[in-house]
Design a protein that fits this description.
Blueprint: H1 3-24, H2 27-34, H3 41-70, H4 73-93, H5 97-123, H6 129-152, E1 154-155, E2 159-160, H7 163-168, H8 178-194, H9 211-214, H10 226-258, H11 262-309, H12 314-322, H13 324-342, H14 348-378, H15 385-413, H16 417-426
Antiparallel strand pairs: 1-2
Helix pairs in contact: 1-5, 1-6, 1-8, 2-3, 2-10, 3-5, 3-14, 4-5, 4-8, 6-11, 10-11, 10-14, 10-15, 11-12, 11-13, 11-15, 11-16, 13-16
Length: about 425
């Protein structure tokens, strides 16, 4: 692969995840501000975050049945991000919850398919995916981190980055619509840039449409393997409490410790993710699949337990955020490796799609509605320190117990020595 292609694809990944990280982390904090006083505010936040899960359920159809058959991936990517720029700008102007939620739903219908499209563009233009793709994909994580620094206007408290304040005069950007507008502008630039990317012709051109394959439903036969069925069900269940982290952690740590700089401290989770990603082969060899997955689940339990028991401890809040690397890498990365191992070659892509639907689609979708209903039931006031102090134990205690219950079920029921030995031999 030529250096200039690597650079162009790396820029693509950076912009792709800069946009998502630029508004998604702080969206709950913004909603607490713009819709303050609205009844059912916690449910408004949950429903807003659920829009990307609904879109995740639909995205495989778009990519598998349309983009893969009729159009170059880079052109579809460009159109999606140009349309997304308009919708993000409209979302920034919404002053009613319903208008905001529906606008974000249509935005994510355009954005979520592009997560697969950027992979397709990359794979179509690199020679050795196993060796070259990780070095390109890591720029996506860097983009997410940089976006957090810009919104918080600091590099985790060490270096000030007052760019937004210099341009707008706003100090606390995350309670305003500035992140949405910033990402709308970047999305427009990225949309235009996408048309300059190396060509990625439709990979399935001329092939008949297959709804079952697009949704990964042809991998359902893997459920006849008890170990995979247990893994799949537990993956769905563990993603219900996972939703609590993405939707409410930023406004929680902002109220309790970090204020307008909370988005920068949230990037510690992504930094941790990169670090533990490098350690997955090391731990996989020594722990095996079952214990890797179990440690990931228990890390969720520990994180929420810390938030519930020590809500006013800055050190415990930072530790809870830093656990993201173990939570994500030990469970999701190991789960992807396990799925790839147990699925026959002809349905491996479908098996990965199925797990994606069960986790980031269905599991987190349920979780986002649950967290809204649970927050409203408690009467959680997420805007103030006093509100979080009053209800942190109950709000975070529930997902902690839920994650622990799933971990216990998984520990007692999951057995797959054949896959364990095969993956360890390759780690």
């Amino acid at each position: 692969m030529k250096t200039h292609i690597r650079v162009r694809l790396s820029i693509m990944m950076f912009l792709q995840f800069f946009i998502w990280g630029g508004f998604f982390v702080t969206m709950g904090t913004y909603l607490l501000s713009v819709f303050s006083g609205h009844e059912g505010l916690n449910s408004i936040i949950g429903r807003s975050y659920a829009t990307h899960n609904w879109a995740a359920l639909i995205a495989p159809l778009f990519v598998g049945l349309i983009a893969d058959r009729f159009f170059n991936a880079e052109r579809v990517n460009g159109v999606c991000h140009l349309g997304g720029a308009v919708l993000l700008w409209l979302a920034a102007s919404a002053r009613e919850p319903g208008a905001f939620i529906w606008t974000m739903f249509f935005y994510f219908l355009l954005y979520m398919p592009t997560l697969a499209l950027v992979n397709a563009i990359s794979f179509a233009n690199i020679d050795e995916p196993e060796k070259q793709f990780p070095g390109i994909r890591v720029w996506g994580t860097i983009g997410w981190i940089v976006a957090g620094f810009l919104v918080a206007q600091t590099v985790i408290g060490f270096i000030d980055l007052p760019l937004i304040k210099a341009l707008t005069g706003v100090g606390n950007a995350q309670i305003t619509n500035i992140p949405l507008k910033m990402c709308a502008i970047v999305s427009a630039v990225y949309g235009v840039y996408s048309f300059t990317l190396p060509a990625a012709p439709p990979a399935a051109k001329g092939q008949p449409m297959d709804f079952k394959k697009a949704l990964g439903l042809d991998a359902l036969r893997l459920f006849t393997r008890p170990s995979f069925a247990i893994f799949a069900v537990c993956s769905f269940l563990i993603c219900i409490p996972l939703a609590f982290y993405y939707a409410r952690t930023n406004d929680f740590i902002a109220a309790m410790a970090f204020g307008e700089k909370s988005a920068a401290y949230m990037t510690i989770g992504q930094i941790s993710e990169v670090f533990f990603m490098l350690l997955v082969p090391f731990f996989l060899l020594r722990l095996g699949v079952k214990w890797m997955l179990l440690v990931g689940m228990l890390a969720w339990t520990l994180r929420y337990g810390l938030f519930a028991v020590f809500p006013s401890s800055t050190a415990m809040l930072l530790f809870g955020v830093a656990l993201h690397g173990i939570c994500y890498d030990f469970f999701f990365v190991t789960g992807q490796l396990y799925t790839d191992r147990v699925a026959p070659r002809e349905i491996r892509a479908s098996a990965q799609a199925l797990i994606g639907l069960l986790t980031y689609g269905a599991g987190m979708l349920v979780g986002n509605y649950v967290l809204g209903i649970w927050g409203d039931h408690l009467g959680l006031d997420g805007q103030t320190r006093a509100g979080w102090l009053a209800d942190a134990a109950a709000f975070w205690g529930m997902p902690a117990l839920a994650a622990l219950a799933v971990a216990v079920i998984f520990f007692l029921t999951f057995r797959d020595r054949e896959a364990e030995e095969a993956i360890r031999s390759e780690a």
